[in-house]
Amino acid sequence: MGGEVVAVGEGRIIGDKKIEVGVQTGKNIVYSKYAGTEIDFNGVSHLLPKEDDIVGILETDDIKDLQPLNDRILIKVAEAEGKTAGGVLLTDSAKEKHVIGTVSAVGPGTLGEDGTRKTLDIAVGNTVMYSKYAGSEFKSADGTQYIVVKASSCLCVHRVYAPPPPKICGSANGPPITALRVKKEDWS
Questions:
Q1: Which superkingdom, per the lineage (predicted)?
Q2: How many other CB atoms are there within 10 angstroms of residue 163's CB atom?
Q3: Helix (H) or strand (E) holding 76
Q4: Which of 18, 57, 53 is nearest to 38 (CA)?
Q5: In 3D, which of 129, 131, 184 has the Cα closest to residue 159?
Q6: Is residue 148 within a helix (H) or strand (E), and if so which, with residue range?
Q7: What integer pLDDT is reported at residue 102 of this predicted model?
Q8: pTM recorded for the entire structure
Q9: What strands, in cross-sheet order, belong to the sheet with 54-57?
Q10: In the chain, N or C: fewer CB atoms in 10 Å?
């Protein structure tokens, strides 16, 4: 769901800070499916959403260009497996809904009680697992599936750990010996 912003409120005050509304008049926004209150004004249908109902700002016609607001994250959904481990091909209706994807865009973060922005720990390029029934799903112009979720709906973030290179040890009488790191396994 989306539309053009025709008017915005004055914002809000948190502590001694005035917080401006995150969208401006004339911008195109995307909002949650059940957002806001619908009204009819001078024969034209309008929606009065809360700022938290607004998913993001969309400058183009393609969802992949969405700029998420607050603690929202735009995720490119990973392709679901087309066949089982045994080699049986699955139809689209038999494929399980995927809950893993790559972060394409991240909002500026949440507002703290003192009115300061708290940036998110999730970054563009991270691979995340999110709640199965969270967020709003979209399809881009090229058919790619996207979902916008709140950061709190991300169950985990996959970070690649790169261990430091092994240390080279030398001996007085022979060639250098490479210290090895061995993964401990339980063989019992």
A1: Eukaryota
A2: 6
A3: strand 72-77
A4: 53
A5: 129
A6: strand 145-150
A7: 93
A8: 0.73
A9: 2-4, 28-31, 54-57, 67-68
A10: C
The structural domains of the chain, ordered by start, are: 2-178 (2.30.33.40)
Q: Which residue has the tokens 């992949």?
A: 64
Average pLDDT per 10 consecutive residues for the chain, totaling 188 residues: 85 81 87 85 88 88 90 90 72 71 93 84 91 89 92 84 63 54 49
- The alpha carbon of residue 34 and the mean position of all alpha carbons in its chain are separated, in whole angstroms, by 20
Q: How many CB atoms lie within 10 A of CB 35?
A: 19
Residues 64-90 as b/e (b if ≥16 CB within 10 A, e otherwise) read bbbbbbbbbbbbebeeeeeeeeeeeee
Beta bridge partners of 47: 38
For residue 142, give both structure tokens: 């090229």
User: Is residue 124 within 8 Å of residue 106, measured between CB atoms?
Assistant: yes
Q: Which residue carries 């912003």 as its tokens? A: 5
Q: Are 67 and 105 in contact (CB under 8 A)?
A: yes
Whose tokens are 């394409």? That residue is 104
Per the listing, tokens 């750990």 go with 161
The number of residues making up the chain comes to 188
